[in-house]
Amino acid sequence: MRPFCMALLAVSILALAACSPEAPGGGEAVPPADAPPPAAQAPGETQPTTSVDPAAPFRADFALIGTEPFWRLDVKGTTLVLTRPDAPAITATGAVLAASSGKATWTAESATPPVVATLTSGTCSDGMSDRVYPYKAEVKIGDLVLTGCGISAEELAKAPPQ
């Protein structure tokens, strides 16, 4: 009976070894591409975290719009263009984007005067139409501060005209 027990032990060890494949040189082998996803982690183990880029929603082009006085600032990549009916257009290049959850600021310090445009998540109305915007906007040009609303250029293009 002893040879039977030894054979059973050997088969058991081989079966266990087959459950945990080893990579050449030791270590755990990478599962094949068609392997099912691993089971959920046991309670008490730390869950893996995924890194989220807070600037991702703000890498698109945006329109910041205000009334009284009327103004519009277009954000296209690193270029900020402010247009107003009562003043010449201001173009600021090399704007740097800084973002946190729900807020983005483009700063063009090399412009004369410096231009800083900020969008903050939150429902906004321009006060002149029924349009509702997804962001509140503030634009600072030197000492001048303009407040209004903001929307991605893509969403603005889809919106019905006001």
Amino-to-carboxy terminus distance: 91 Å
Report the sheet with the most strands, covering strand number, pairing sense and barrel closure: 9 strands, antiparallel
Give the integer mean of the pLDDT values. 80
The portion of residues forming beta strands comes to 35-45%
Order of helix and strand elements from N to C terminus: HEEEEEEEEEH
Gyration radius, rounded: 29 Å
Question: Based on CA inertia axes, which overall geometry fits?
Answer: elongated
Low-pLDDT runs: none
Could you estimate the helical fraction of the residues in percent? 10-25%
Counted by DSSP, the helix tally is 2
Oligomer: single chain
Count of extended strands? 9
Strand adjacency order, main sheet: 4-3-2-1-9-8-7-6-5
Category by helix and strand content: mainly beta
Explain the overall architecture.
This protein is mostly beta strands and 162 residues long. It has a domain at 56-158. 15% of the residues lie in helices and 40% in strands. It contains 2 helices and 9 strands. Strands 4-3-2-1-9-8-7-6-5 form a 9-stranded antiparallel beta sheet. β6 (103-108) and β7 (115-125) form a beta hairpin. It is elongated. The termini are far apart. The mean pLDDT is 80.
